[in-house]
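G., the chain you wanted modeled:
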Amino acid sequence: MRRDDGMRRPTSLAVRVTLLVGLATTTMFLLAAWGIERSIERHFAQMDLVELQGAWQSVSAALKSMNRATNGASEQRRLADAVAGSHNVYVLVRDASGHRLYETTPPALSALTRGTPAAESLNLDTLVVWKTPQHTYRGAVLRSGRDTVVMATTIDFHLQYLLQLQEALWAGTLLASVVSVFIARLAVQQGHAPLRRISARMREMTTERLHVRLSPQQVPVELADLVIAFNAMLTRIEQSFLRLRDVSADIAHELRTPVTNLTTHTQVALSKARDVEAYREVLYSNLEEFERMGSMISDMLFLAQAEQGLTKQRTESVDLAVEVRALFDYFEAWAEERKVGLELEGGASAVDGDRAMLRRALSNLITNAIRYAPSGQAIVVSLSQNGQRVSVKVCNPGPDIAPEHLGHLFERFYRVDPSRQRRGEGAGLGLAIVKSIVEAHGGEVSVTSTHGTTCFVMHLRAAGPQT
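Predicted structure as tokens:
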């Protein structure tokens, strides 16, 4: 598939969801592993604290009870007795002058503790970790009177356990992340199954299956709106397709009659030798059919352009009264021939629009009114205004049009009486053109037929700024 220059395809939804789920689960597992490690490490620290506190209480009690006047050997024995039960605790006691009274700490540990300030109590906050080349210790430097006491215990076993636990947690996190990404990928793949089914149904849609609709109840609720929108689009396409098909059929039907007439006239004319006047009559007859076909083709082209918005409008201020009077002058001879009067009532301000198009709409309505008005009657064109809304009503007396026909009068080629099709009433496009022109100007058109009077009403927007 060709990709437009400069356009980058968005990342796949499956990839996005998989990455997000993988990132979220990995983060959660890492946080869980960090929490477990911290919890166990704190547990070990508390265990060490309990052991150190036991030894510290014994040493502190021994220091307080010692008589410093005795010799050093006695002091060492009493301190050794105090820590005798704490096999994993190292003790270093210095007096105020820094002389060692008692020491079980390795030399390397003793050197490390010199820079550590002495604390007054033993708790988790005062515990310090010292590392020597051989071992790691956790302990504290405490003050007992004027003496300084170093309490320490090895934590090599704890660190070894934590190291193994850390490796296990990292491995578990990595494995869990991989598994979660794999499961997320499967879930996304499975979750997209309804979309694939919808796509498959869409691919089955053809011009012969435009009536088929997807069921919103058979898809997940998240896709129901998509299915409803798709069905609505199908409905519009089907209606457009049917309308286009009907128009094509109507055009073929409308063109077949004049073409048949032309063919018949020509065959009759050629069937035997005729004088010049006979041929002239045939040519005049054919000319009428040609003009009828040309008018219909022109109307169809105008309708197609109007519905596609391709007609070029020249917006200007149009005085409808002036246009109606001009059309009365144009149709005066025809109206007199049919003994139909033309009357203009009311008034309204000018409207914004294309003068030629609006004149064509008015012409179609007046032509239609003259055609169906009984002899001796008059058609009335009324102008009125309500705010920015200008109305033009064209009424003619005559038999009422049945209500079931009123809604179809503005459709192409629609005739209330199909038998009158070939009696010079036109191709049945005049009212459809009126509707297209009025709607192109943002207005609307309607029709009523009651009590022996049929009225077509155009509603247009008055010229000038809107209020």
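The mean pLDDT is 84.

Shout if anything looks off.
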